[in-house]
Amino acid sequence: MNHYFTDNDNLRSKLRTVLYSYQNHKFSFYTDIGVFSKAKIDEGSKTLVETYFIHGRKNIKVLDAGCGYGFVGITLTKIMNCDVDFIDISKRAVHLCKMNLKENKVTGNVLISNVYENVKDKYDLIIVNPPIKAGKQVYLSFINEAFNHLNDDGELWFVMRTNHGVKTVYKNLTKTYKAEILEKNRGFYVVFCKNQLTH
Prior knowledge:
The strands form two sheets. Strands 5-4-3-6-7-9-8 form a seven-stranded mixed beta sheet, with helices on both faces. The protein has a two-stranded antiparallel sheet with strand order 1-2. The chain has helices spanning 43-55, 71-80, 91-103, 136-144, 166-174; strands at residues 16-22, 25-31, 61-65, 83-88, 109-112, 123-128, 150-161, 177-185, 188-195. The chain is built from five helices and nine strands; from the N terminus they run E-E-H-E-H-E-H-E-E-H-E-H-E-E. The chain has a single domain (16-195), classed as Rossmann fold, CATH 3.40.50.
């Protein structure tokens, strides 16, 4: 059985639409079989973006890593006026993300990439809801390798559940980086990290 962190051309298709609104902003997203959270917007992703809307920076260059159908990056583009690139390993997710950029009348670059394999640029922010079902090696790669693709003052934001080991991941990050838990919601932790800069 294929989980969503795969590139499988043989899945049948059953397109559907999920809706999201924040304050006066309304969004519509196409989803399909074989992509993460196809039936509704994931609670973790929602907690992540809504924490970012309150505490995050506007008008910056962002990478939505493991973007799925584009929920996180598209909302940041529209609400925070960010310039967002999107990556995912799945051709279907990339296709849906491109559809959703048009559907929500925003622009962004969408790229197929196995974790950060095809990422060439540096970013002010990498934001990720890591694919837990892909296994520990993969989801930790999204977190630990992000710092190779950040500008000097760049930030990593991610969301994880307590039962997926977020406290251990957070503790390990604090040994090397400035890290902070910005939000806790129904077992989801939103974690902020950046390089410890010395001036």
